[in-house]
What we know:
By secondary structure, the chain is an all-alpha fold. The protein has helices spanning about 15-30, 35-45, 50-75, 80-95, 100-130, 135-185, 195-200, 200-215, 215-225, 230-245, 250-270, 280-300, 305-335, 340-360, 370-395. The mean pLDDT is about 85.
Amino acid sequence: MSSKNIKPKLKGIGLFIYIAYLTMIPPLGTDLYMPALPSLVSELDTTDDMGSITMMAFLLFMALGMLVVGALSDKYGRKRMLAISSLLAFAAFLGCAFSQNIFLLLVFRCVQGFFGGSLVSVSTAMIGDNFKDKRRMAALSISQAFSFAAPVVAPIIGVFVLDLGGWRGEFFVLAALLFVAFIGSLFVEEVQSADKTDALSVGDVFRSLARQITKPSFIRLMVIGTPPNIPYMAYLGVASFIYISMFHTNEFEFSCYFAVISLGAILGSLSYMKTVGAQVENKLAGILLVVSAVASTAMLIWGSAGPLSFLVCMIPFTFCATYLRPYVSNRTLAESVGSQGAASSAMNFLFTGIGSLGMLAITLGWPSYIIGIGWLMAISTALSIVGFIAAQKKH
Length: 395
């Protein structure tokens, strides 16, 4: 049945839930896959390094997909790009499930990352298209909270699926999630007018993207919101080593500590939608940056004392980092009427790309992972404060 013959039904709360669902898929594409890596490496007769490369390739191509496809949705429409991206990502996950060697798997992981990442930027643009003011704040807060919740549930689901269907079963589950996303895309109402999209060339789209990236107000907002992603991603990359290898917790205790910090991330994102008015938003952002600076200092001094000390230092920073993301996202979309796709692409590309640097930065020979995270927290907080002060002066 053609999508043109299906009456769009996803509006209001239905569209809201669908967008939140889309934002969970890329994190699940990495975190659901992690428990399967050892058995995958063994069965495909490859090395641990090659297994890790499939993870890095997914993240790299996810950032590229966010940058390119979100911008193209200004030209070709959100509905069409969602349908194409979800269908191709679905096919790539099936390709992984049937891969007989690591090189074929790597190719399919790149395709997954590219089109999986595009779901995030297109869905963020849809928030800008369909929700205004407080509803946009709520949509951004909740959808990003869902993306932070994914790493909590993914390893649990991953272990269960691994026991039932092996590492190939993980990819069948992810393929099923993408097929649901494709079906949902058929019921999305296209809000981009045909006159507007027909008038745009592909060159216009990427010129708009270049203007977005070089716009001074956008740069100031990104300096506020993107640096905290670096220590947070660094933490995600080494959390198990810190708790299990350094603090000698067992796997269950590690899961509990990890879940509590992830809860802080979820609450930080959700707290943004409770703020009322620009003055309250700015005031809370300023207060949280001060709290983040204190948490950074505490991490350097007391973070290594034990698992509870590390937890107490990490939670306030995580809360601040995940409050700032919808804070800058909302302001960016509000300033980008008419080019939501370009704004969403640039924003999500920077969130993911710069955040991924944390996984590299934490390997740079620090005295310990905790000291490394503490310094990354301090540096990122200083950068965010500079961006925040610059943005306030302009207002």
